[in-house]
Specification:
The protein has seven helices and eight strands. It has 179 residues and is of the alpha/beta class. The protein has a six-stranded mixed sheet. A two-stranded antiparallel ribbon has the order 7-8. The two termini are 26 Å apart. The mean pLDDT is 91.
């Protein structure tokens, strides 16, 4: 079965990296995955779209994602700028980086305070909390993409040393706190 997700982030939050981490974690579990960034003239703070495509079989499609089953929103403020009804179907699931679960027109909504986790652990670059590992972990749990062990294993492909340790901690906290 082919599954597709949309990741909405701001430049600098790590949305593209999160899609890659999720694809790597799924691959560690024997599934096929594509992380598909959508690049333009983005700058720090601009909205960035990334996509994740998953399957138990080889993926032959290389087109854009048209009907994602869910969306991962890296900042609740993005919801003020993008009409969710235009980017995902009404029956889709939404995961939002927020300390308070927003209401989105009858959709199933999950939240995790990835910003709080990043600030607590010092995952901040140029004053911006980097929430990618927390959001990737929460998304893996919400959308049943991969186990926490596979997320931790995938993080080793992107980080080393102390940075790996802190990102593993962020992933573990987010996994346990997503609701």
């Amino acid at each position: 079965m082919l599954r597709e997700l949309l990741i909405l982030s701001r430049g600098g939050q790590g949305g593209v990296t999160a899609s890659r981490i999720l694809a790597s974690a799924a691959a560690l579990e024997g599934r096929w995955a594509q992380a598909i960034p959508e690049f333009g003239a983005e700058r720090r703070g601009a909205i960035v779209r990334s996509y994740l495509r998953l399957s138990d079989k080889r993926i032959l499609r290389h087109s854009s994602v048209r009907r994602p089953e869910g969306v991962v929103v890296f900042s609740s403020r993005i919801l003020e700028l993008i009409d969710v009804d235009k980017v995902i179907p009404v029956d889709s699931t939404v995961l939002v980086n927020s300390s308070v679960r927003p209401r989105l027109g009858g959709r199933v909504v999950y939240s995790v305070d990835a910003t709080g986790i990043a600030l607590k652990l010092g995952l901040v670059i140029a004053g911006w909390p980097v929430v990618n590992t927390a959001m990737a972990s929460a998304a893996a749990r919400v959308f049943n993409i991969a186990s926490l062990d596979s997320i931790v294993g995938a993080l080793g492909e992107y980080f080393r040393g102390k940075l790996l340790e802190v990102n593993v901690e962020a992933a573990k906290i987010a996994w346990g706190e997503v609701a």
